[in-house]
Design brief:
This protein is an alpha/beta fold. Helix content is about 45%, strand content about 10%. The termini are far apart.
């Protein structure tokens, strides 16, 4: 089935859904690299006119990746909730966009709709939206999850404390961890990217985090972001695993490149659930994604990178995660060239993830060879906070010394909470108050560094 539109007297034809979705995407370097981008801005607008008139039901008939070849497609189609879809089954993509922006589309209505939307419908709708539309709808949506504290509540902004170290030195990690705690970061997760991706290193780091957490009764969850197979082995060896982490993508071929499958993720989730380590909930999975992941693995099946990204959210949704975040500028300028493209992608990913029913966060970041700087990241962190993002990632000084990329700092989290009148997760905030690290308004206390000795002395490894 083809699609067409007429713009300024010229007719534009698009061979199928994959073609019109790709041409309708905002300009980004990854789609140009893949050869799927619109030829020029006029064709891009023509594709959006065509896309706006496509019935949502078409996406249920035309799989972008063949059902027989791809378990993600099978997950999407077999798990589609026809009853949830029924209220919008008569709509086109453009009509769904208009409804989402209407007063009728409140938190409850959008939440009920989510299981009825396929990722391709969601991606299509985002392509018709301005940045302010993505923000306006994004802030309506709330996805609440829980493990040792509660994430996603109104008036709250979570943070991942990322104390990476280039040699996995426990003392260096502990110093970064304490720096973050003193600035009120870490309620979403204390998550370490290990330099050495092996079971032995992971257990050492988990034991250190567990000793810190239990000594001070910190109501936060920890995670070592190693491969899911390593986490399963750590659970088997009795390690104190809170969350299971894995990077995921939107096609079976891309996930195979990551060394994962849906059955492996299900096995890992069951292993983590068996530990029952959560105190206020049992959402045990943590997923990371990023536009360009499928393309970089040459596993995008001709899709534009944003549509492939939203299919990854279908994978994440199947496992009831505590946290999901896009690492928006990490893959590099080959996929998101500059600050403008990174900002747009971050807003798209948040909107699409939330509409799919995910507890969506973001690593607001860029690599040093991208045409971006910290001012761009400041803009994106403010826009995402306005859009109601569940959590953001922070590293010491905004500079990850292990992964060699630029992110947000612990100070940025304090700034955002103060500027927007937001607080940390309630259980974590109560702990911060008890430790005299924040005041009654949730603001970092000027004398918080005086608490350093009380926190650090018993925990730094020899």
């Amino acid at each position: 089935m083809g699609y067409r539109s007429i713009l300024a007297g010229e007719q534009y034809r698009f061979a199928d859904l994959r073609h019109v979705l790709a041409c309708a995407s905002p300009l980004r370097s990854g789609d140009e690299l893949a050869g799927v981008a619109a030829a020029d801005p006029v064709e891009r607008i023509a594709a959006r006119y065509a896309l706006a008139d496509i019935p949502l039901a078409d996406f249920l008939r035309d799989a972008l990746v063949p059902y027989e070849q791809d378990e993600v497609t099978r997950l999407i189609q077999d798990g589609h909730d026809a009853a949830a879809f029924a209220p919008v089954a008569h709509m086109t993509v453009g009509q769904l966009r208009d409804w989402l922006l209407s007063h009728a589309a409140d938190h409850a209505a959008i939440g009920a709709l989510g299981p009825g939307l396929t990722p391709e419908m969601v991606a299509a709708t985002s392509k018709l939206m301005r940045n302010q539309d993505l923000i306006a709808v994004g802030r309506k949506m709330r996805v609440v999850t829980a493990f040792r504290n509660t994430q996603g509540l109104p008036g709250r902004l979570g943070s991942r404390l990322q104390p990476n170290h280039p040699t996995d030195d426990p003392r260096g990690i502990a110093a970064s961890l304490l720096d973050g705690l003193l600035l009120g970061a870490g309620d979403a997760v204390i998550g370490i990217n290990p330099a050495g991706d092996n079971v032995a290193t992971g257990i050492v780091l988990l034991d250190m985090l567990e000793a810190m957490r239990t000594r001070h009764d910190i109501p936060a969850q920890s995670c070592v972001l190693t491969h899911v197979t390593n986490t399963i082995r750590m659970i088997e060896q009795g390690a104190p695993v809170d969350l299971v982490f894995q990077s995921v993508a939107g096609t079976q071929a891309a996930n195979t490149g990551f060394g994962v499958s849906l059955s492996l993720l299900a096995e890992a989730r069951e292993a983590a659930l068996s530990l029952r380590r959560g105190t206020v909930g049992q959402n045990v999975m943590y997923f990371e994604t990023g536009q360009g992941a499928a393309l970089s693995a040459e596993a995008h099946h001709g899709m534009d990178q944003q549509t492939a990204e939203v299919r990854a959210y279908a994978v994440a949704r199947a496992f009831a995660p505590l946290l999901v975040n896009t690492v928006v500028g990490f893959i590099g300028p080959e996929y998101l060239y500059d600050g403008k493209q990174i900002i747009r992608a971050g807003l798209e990913d948040h909107f699409c993830g939330k509409l799919m029913g995910l507890p969506m966060g973001c690593d607001v970041c860029y690599t040093n060879h991208a045409e971006a700087d910290q001012d761009d990241m400041d803009s994106l962190m403010v826009l995402l906070t306005a859009a109601g993002v569940n959590f953001l990632i922070a590293v010491p000084g905004g500079d990850d010394v292990m992964l060699s990329y630029q992110s947000l700092s612990y100070h940025d989290m304090a700034t955002l909470r103060s500027s927007f009148g937001l607080r940390a997760a309630p259980e974590f905030e109560a702990w911060l108050e008890r430790m005299e690290l924040v005041d009654a308004h949730g603001r970092v206390r000027l004398d918080a560094p005086r608490q350093l000795g009380r926190l650090v002395a018993p925990d730094l490894p020899a």
